[in-house]
From TrEMBL:
Pathway: Purine metabolism; IMP biosynthesis via de novo pathway; N(1)-(5-phospho-D-ribosyl)glycinamide from 5-phospho-alpha-D-ribose 1-diphosphate: step 2/2. Keywords: ATP-binding, Ligase, Manganese, Metal-binding, Nucleotide-binding, Purine biosynthesis. The keyword Manganese applies. It comes from Lachnospira multipara. The gene is purD. HAMAP family: GARS (MF_00138). Belongs to the GARS family. GO terms for biological process: 'de novo' IMP biosynthetic process; purine nucleobase biosynthetic process. This is Phosphoribosylamine--glycine ligase. It comes from the Bacteria.
């Protein structure tokens, strides 16, 4: 098979890496890819939102399967464009990707079908939002931009003053562009966060391993929200009891709700869960693999990923048994100092060769490129995902942090507490 992956981050590197392990795949292309992806795929200079060029490339190269990694093209309808041309593509159509594309839509869906989530209100005007905050809201409270905001459009506001300022940032200052034209204001929930990825074929859902992200930029969950500073898998907080509850009230209920709305979902649904004192609640949905969740879940997956992708497309997922190794996995993100606000790029990265030939250590590239001299340099806020497998979370964490010292670049920054709270569990 010839496979095309659309995207350029650590998630797409993880997908390409997993595809490279498939006996069914002869050639992998990635558009636009990055310097690390170039080690397992041929990178193509087409951007993820250039749908016509991507379709033309897939037809020219007789691509057998295209995998969409990123949220923007999915929400924009790239799957519909590929299907119109009779091309096989993995990912939800535009009318299903709205599950991630609109927070208001997903909250309304959960309310309509009794899927447990936080209480909320939706607002199209800053004045109405502020009136609600002044007269009815309880604090702390959460403000969410309705649209896509690179995983950063969520503000946790401790006071009324913070919330009023947050409304201005989202709706008037357009901190996240048009994503803030409409906002959701919702109840602040307490508890442990858990990420659960799943494969869906429109009717059947198969759950992957649980994981836990670290969204804040600095240790002890301080600093600004980022796209994710590290991850571990599995989560010891995702118990059999939690799994049973979510299978009964969340997972299949979401797939069935989308089908009833005429929005058949095929692809990956990412469930962001909060394990509250009152039970699990859905924080958010994503319509694709998480990043860096993909970097800790896919290395533990035993299945040939091509079989799973094709089963999702063909509606035969019920015939697939997902299997995962017993080992735990930890990913520590090496970022550019100053991320997620401002940072410098273009610094040479050294030491990456130390990962070669080590099956239990993987270096996933997120923000890298080749410079004019052919050297790999930093090209983003999140640069690399240093990933390690171990017999326990404690061992995987030790190995991941050991490996972070193998790589050097100017302005290198990382959190030092990824998975620290669970290493002895």
């Amino acid at each position: 098979m010839k496979v095309l992956v659309v995207g350029s981050g650590g998630r797409e590197h993880a997908i390409c890496w997993k595809l490279s392990k498939s006996a069914k795949v002869d050639k992998i292309y990635c558009a636009p890819g990055n310097a690390g992806i170039a080690s397992v795929a041929e990178c193509v200079d087409i951007k993820a939102m250039e749908f016509k060029k991507l379709v033309a490339f897939a037809k020219e190269k007789e691509i057998d399967l295209t995998v969409i990694g990123m949220d923007d093209p999915l929400v924009g309808g790239i799957v519909d464009e590929f299907e119109k041309e009779g091309l096989r593509v993995f990912g939800p159509r535009k009318n299903a990707a709205i599950l991630e594309g609109s927070k208001a839509f997903s909250k309304d869906l959960m309310k309509k079908y009794n899927i447990p989530t936080a209480a909320y209100e939706t607002f199209n005007s800053a004045d109405a939002a502020k009136k609600y905050l002044e007269e009815e809201a309880e604090f702390p409270i959460v403000l969410k931009a309705d649209g896509l905001a690179l995983g950063k459009g969520v503000l946790i506001c401790e006071t009324k003053e913070e919330a009023l300022t947050g409304v201005d940032e989202l709706m008037l200052d357009k901190k996240f562009g048009s994503a803030g034209d409409r906002i959701v204001i919702e109840e602040f929930m307490t508890g442990r966060e858990v990420s659960v990825l799943s494969f869906v074929d429109g009717k059947t859902i198969k759950i992957m391993a649980s994981a836990q992200d670290h969204k804040r930029a600095k240790d002890n969950d301080e600093g600004l929200n980022t796209g994710g500073m590290g991850n571990f898998c599995p989560s010891p907080f995702y118990t059999d009891e939690v799994d049973d509850f979510c299978k009964k009230y969340v997972y299949q209920a979401t797939v069935d709700a989308m089908a009833k709305e005429g929005r058949e979902f095929k692809g990956v649904i990412f469930f962001g869960l909060m394990l509250t004192p009152k039970g699990p609640r859905v924080l958010e949905y994503n319509a694709r693999f998480g990043d860096p969740e993909a970097q800790v879940v896919l290395p533990r997956m035993k299945n040939d990923i091509v079989d799973v992708f094709e089963a999702c497309i063909d509606g035969t997922l019920d015939k697939i048994d997902l299997e995962f190794v017993d080992d735990a996995c930890v990913c520590v993100v090496l970022a550019s100092d100053g991320y997620p606000v401002s940072y410098e790029k273009g610094f040479e990265i050294k030491g990456m060769e130390k990962f070669e030939g080590k099956d239990d250590y993987i270096l996933f590239h997120a923000g890298t490129k080749f410079n004019e001299e052919g050297k790999i340099v930093t090209n983003g806020g999140r640069v690399l995902g240093v990933t390690a497998l171990g017999s326990s979370l404690k061992e995987a964490r030790r190995k991941a942090y050991e490996a972070t010292q193998w790589v050097e670049f100017e302005n290198k920054y990382m959190r030092t507490d990824i998975a620290k709270a669970v290493e002895n569990m």
